[in-house]
Amino acid sequence: MEIIYRIQFLQTFEDGDMALFDMGAEYNFYGSDITCSFPVNGKFISDQQLISNSVLNAHDDVISTMKPGVNWVDMHKCLAVVGA
């Protein structure tokens, strides 16, 4: 396994900040990755809510394309169209 980046975060989160977790794992040559972000106080401000909704909508659009015979390139192209 290769570590691509290492970030040392020494600041304390403050009200209104967003936290981002980027996690990955490998097992028997299968790799997986997940990223999640959320407001540290549990409440989105308007810009944060707009971005979160945009990402969720793009996610839902890509998920709706998944079916047998659709490969990851097709899903990536769908995301490129949605994100444009």
UniProtKB/TrEMBL annotation:
Cofactor: Mn(2+)
Positions of transmembrane segments: none
Database matches in SUPFAM superfamilies: Creatinase/aminopeptidase
Domain (Peptidase M24): residue spans on this chain: 12-77
UniProt-listed GO biological process terms: proteolysis
Superkingdom classification of source: Eukaryota
GO molecular function, one term: metallopeptidase activity
InterPro entries, per the entry: Creatinase/aminopeptidase-like, Pept_M24, X-Pro_dipept-like
Record protein name field: Peptidase M24 domain-containing protein
